[in-house]
Amino acid sequence: MDCAPMRPWFPRWEVGGTCLAVDTDQGVVLVDTGVGLHDHEHPYWIVRLFALDFGLRRDPETTAVRQLARRGIAAGDVRHIVLTHLHFDHAGGLPDFPHAQIHVHRLEHEAFLRPRSWIELAYDRFDAAHDPAWRLYEQIDADWFGFGAIRLPFTPRLYLVPLFGHTRGHCGVAIQTGDGWIFQCGDALPLNAEFDVTPAWLNGIVLGPHGPRLEAFARAHPEVRLLAGHMRRSFFEVHLT
Ligand SMILES: [Zn+2]
Question: Nearest 5°: phi and psi at 143?
């Protein structure tokens, strides 16, 4: 789902915020939420600022909770949310699923509570004002294609894959599918997982250091589909059901 449609002033890309609903033995697991109803209805000043800058479309119907409802999935059915990181455009939908546990890296939770760099200012404390149940992880306990990974308690297999840099505790999320894997790399990857879309030096500053490794990984592993936290609008038009 695209749960954070944007049209930045420059360059004029039509961009969506990637959110996945994964069917597991624990019910639907959301991987990132996009922005939530409160971001559309009474946005925090940080969100208002970014919304202007990035041309965030103000439309509550694009939230995960409304999109899932249109598919017959009620907010109360979502008991687990896995997050790449806690920036408002990935975690803004948390209050819309008040019964969900939040699975996230411990360092990311710490950064959310005590931001200390400019990019960590894009947290919105109201995303956790409902005092959700946190499930915090930090111990690497698995190897996923050579990446240190943290197994999450779901079937099919899901892993948190630490890709620190964009924020202190930013992780990718690997999801086993019928015939391979989806690797939601969040904001460790440039737009649309296209590595030449922005200059490497800029990616290094904003997205962290993982671009070159992920680019080589994508070439070596066609059975793994890499997704970025922000994909071009055309991606969602092809993949939305
Ligand atoms: Zn981010």
Answer: -115, 120
CA of 8 to the centre of ligand 1 (A): 15
* Count of C-beta atoms within a 10 Å radius of residue 234: 11
Cβ neighbours, 10 Å, residue 76 = 10
Digit-coded pLDDT (tens) for 12-65? 788 999 999 999 999 999 999 999 999 999 999 988 988 888 888 889 999 999
Q: Which domains does the chain show, CATH number per domain?
A: 15-236 (3.60.15.10)
The pTM for the full model equals 0.94
- Cβ atoms within 10 A of the Cβ of 120, count? 19
How far away, in angstroms, is 6 Cα from ligand 1 center? Answer: 14
Ligand 1 center from residue 153 Cα (angstroms) = 25
